[in-house]
């Protein structure tokens, strides 16, 4: 395979998940400005975030199933088109209702393209270059999470909030062109849809996610939250029953018998819980306690966000040599250590110099997690189930992040809150400590990934050369 062809495949699949992953974080940064411009109340602001989270989380498995039946490229392109069109509609919104509607449909587009991006990448590159390609793909996903506060602040301060959506339009159009030209479609002609599986999985994930995103605002023992949990539990129980009996299950539950697959999904859930929840409050610390602008706050976190760009070019070869499990374990341990460092130092008067190295360590750890995760996710499953495996991993990460923000939010409110600067710091410290502990448990869980997963006897020179070339293109 030509290097230019491989580069296009990685760019197309990586950029798709980058767009979807970045969107929510950028929107969160712009909420104060949107509140004023659209005269939105607190409930509307929450739904501008939650509408995307609900549809995205609920339909990830459905997206993987549709790709398996109708063709990965076709559904992938459909997802990009939906995401791009609704991004333009979101930027044109003049009311909260319009924006919330656009966000919900955006989530549908994201759910169609994100799990299939990994499937297309894994099937579209030669086996000897697979670890390297998956390394770049995973790192791009990590960058989306890390760069959200910085890009959101830059756009809001430099232009207007509408541009956080409008920028997706030209990027999406370019992505459609690249994907249409460079990607190949795979499908199973004899594959059958699993309608009961699709319905029960969607109901279950929707119920659980809806309960989590509404817990803080409505109360954890409110009828809405308890009812949603019950609704979700019934849906997931029905899903498991259906999949066990189905001749053509959407998610063959036998894939969880693979120790590596189960371990990486547990580690992914715990990582998302601890890290997403902690970053949610750290991004606000510089604005609320230190009085910085959104852009200045994003710049302060740049040592965290820049590390993947420096680490990624070497990670493919490192994973080839040492295996995915060890690298994931070390990465999560570094993230846990970085969070613990921040928790021990953060205060109203904390100097930036006292925590900047913690950001660096966390950034290195983040790259070491995201880069080998894709390899570990796909290593133990048959090729025809790679889309399903990707959908499962994306689902647990998304739900883990929602649980993390909700749980650490409750700890934050109990220990302090938004009432004062000292209250915010007290709540932040408690939340980050819990986040660090959860991520450390994820590091321990990743030790159960077999050392052979992702490992090669000998890394090829092609990987090293291609690594340098693609690293320059991404930068």
UniProtKB/TrEMBL annotation:
The gene is stp1. The keyword Membrane applies. The chain crosses the membrane at residues 44-63, 75-92, 104-125, 132-151, 163-183, 195-213, 219-242, 263-286, 292-312, 324-343, 355-381, 402-425, 431-449. It is a multi-pass membrane protein. Keywords: Cell membrane, Membrane, Transmembrane, Transmembrane helix, Transport. One of its GO terms (molecular function) is transmembrane transporter activity. Residues 9-454 form the Major facilitator superfamily (MFS) profile domain. It comes from the Bacteria. This is Multidrug resistance protein Stp. It is found in: Cell membrane. It holds the Pfam family MFS_1. GO terms for cellular component: plasma membrane. The keyword Metal-binding does not apply. Gene3D superfamilies: MFS general substrate transporter like domains, Multidrug resistance protein D. NCBIfam families: efflux_EmrB (TIGR00711). Signal peptide: none annotated. InterPro entries: EmrB-like, MFS, MFS_dom, MFS_trans_sf. It comes from Acidithrix ferrooxidans.
């Amino acid at each position: 395979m030509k290097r230019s062809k491989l580069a296009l495949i990685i760019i197309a699949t990586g950029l798709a998940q980058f767009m979807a992953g970045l969107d929510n974080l950028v929107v969160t940064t712009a909420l104060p400005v949107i509140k004023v411009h659209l005269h939105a109340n607190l409930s509307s602001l929450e739904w501008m975030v939650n509408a995307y989270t609900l549809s995205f989380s609920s339909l990830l498995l459905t997206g993987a199933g549709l790709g398996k039946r109708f063709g990965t490229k076709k559904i992938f392109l459909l997802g990009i088109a939906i995401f791009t069109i609704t991004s333009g509609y979101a930027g044109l919104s003049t009311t909260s209702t319009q924006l919330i509607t656009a966000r919900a449909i955006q989530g549908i587009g994201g759910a169609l393209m994100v799990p299939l991006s990994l499937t297309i990448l894994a099937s579209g590159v030669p086996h000897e270059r697979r670890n390297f390609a998956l390394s770049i793909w995973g790192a791009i996903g990590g960058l989306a999470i890390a760069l959200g506060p910085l890009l959101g602040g830059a756009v809001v301060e430099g232009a207007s909030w509408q541009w956080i959506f409008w920028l997706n339009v030209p990027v999406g159009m370019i992505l459609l062109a690249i994907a249409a030209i460079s990607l190949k479609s795979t499908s199973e002609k004899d594959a059958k849809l699993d309608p009961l599986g699709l319905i029960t999985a969607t109901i279950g994930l929707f119920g659980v996610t809806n309960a989590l995103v509404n817990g803080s605002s409505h109360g954890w023992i409110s009828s809405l939250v308890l009812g949603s949990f019950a609704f979700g539990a019934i849906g997931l129980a029905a899903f498991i029953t259906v999949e066990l009996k189905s001749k053509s299950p959407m998610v063959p539950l036998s894939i969880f018998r693979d120790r590596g697959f189960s371990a990486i999904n547990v580690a992914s859930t715990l990582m998302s819980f601890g890290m997403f929840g902690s970053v949610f409050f750290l991004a606000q610390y510089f604005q609320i306690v230190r009085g910085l602008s959104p852009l200045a706050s994003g710049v302060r976190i740049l040592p965290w966000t820049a590390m993947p760009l420096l680490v990624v070019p070497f990670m493919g070869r490192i994973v080839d040599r040492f295996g995915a499990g060890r690298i994931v374990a070390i990465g999560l341990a570094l993230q846990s250590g970085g969070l613990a460092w921040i928790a021990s130092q953060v205060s109203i008067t904390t100097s930036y110099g006292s925590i900047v190295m913690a950001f660096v360590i966390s950034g290195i750890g983040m790259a070491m997690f995201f880069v080998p995760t894709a390899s570990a996710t796909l290593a133990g499953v048959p090729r025809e189930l790679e889309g399903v495996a990707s959908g499962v991993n994306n689902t647990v990460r998304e739900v883990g992040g929602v649980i993390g923000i909700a749980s650490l939010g409750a700890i934050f409110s109990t220990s302090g809150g938004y009432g004062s600067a000292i209250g915010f710091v007290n709540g932040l410290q408690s939340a980050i400590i819990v986040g660090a502990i959860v991520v450390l448990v994820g590091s321990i869980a990743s030790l159960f990934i077999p050392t052979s997963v992702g490992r090669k006897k000998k890394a090829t020179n092609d990987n090293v050369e291609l690594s340098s070339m693609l690293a320059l293109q991404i930068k």
